Amino acid sequence: MLTLDLKNAPRWHELAPGVRVQLRPLTTALMVSTRSDPAVEAVPEEASDEERVVAFAKALARRAVLAWEGIGDADGSPIDPSPEAIDAVLDVWPIFEAFQLTYVSKGLLLEQEKKRLRALAEWSFAGASDTAKPARKPARTARRG
After folding, report:
1. pLDDT tens for residues 118-133?
2. Which of 5, 20, 62, 141 is most enclosed, with most CB atoms within 10 A?
3. First to last CA, the chain
4. Which pTM does this prediction carry?
């Protein structure tokens, strides 16, 4: 079943102990705009799937991150999100993985669920046969009086 969150409000996601990010809802508009991001479109055709995934994740994060906690500069002073800082944070492998699992995968799971439901609908009618048994005798009709 597809469950909808009608609030559609930003949410906090914990990406590592002490590191939280506030992210916009993962909407169709956000995904579509990310697909046409100049950094995503600039990925060479011969790039690996991994390179494409990283470029897409960074572009998505630059659109989605509203605020964060637990992220600082080299001196340990808190810093605000910026495109450069967001890219640098996603270069940290455990943070990247957590972002993919807690945020991006939800959109992908929804896409998989849509495909599964579509396949299920197509499968359920494929090769369908009658399940009712044929009548043994003709049905009686009511007499008019």
Report:
1. 555 565 445 555 555 6
2. 62
3. 53
4. 0.71
